[in-house]
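thought: fold this chain, then report.
action: predict
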Amino acid sequence: MSINDALSLADEMELDLVEISPNADPPVCKVVDYQKFLYQQKKKQKEIKANAAKIVVKEIRFGPNTDDHDYNFKLKHAINFLEEGAKVRAYVFFKGRSILFKEQGEKLLARFVNDLDDYGKVDQMPRLEGKRMIIILSPKKKK
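observation:
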């Protein structure tokens, strides 16, 4: 149908001529109420956004000399977070001169990763950012 015919048809129906697919040959147009068309598009976008997975990141903080009881307590929390589907960012915070004991922080995070092997996988290996040594774990897919 020619553009003039389509426009006259849209005027008769008191609606708008909306171009749906401009790249097609010939271009595809539709006779609709333009405001309603925009509303429906916004609604579809909102629905897509609502269905998108939201990633939650939980943080767990250690000191370089974290005791066994504290470590186990934080480990249980990390297990719960991973089972809920959240990512876990664990970090060792070095105060003052404790930065000299980076090896202790690395050992602590390696032990943490080893203990959480059944629940999550490492996204990012331990790295030092300022006074923090950070590692990120994400939950394993359930079968």
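thought: worth noting. Residues 3-51 form a domain with the Ubiquitin-like (UB roll) fold (CATH 3.10.20.80).
final: tokens above.
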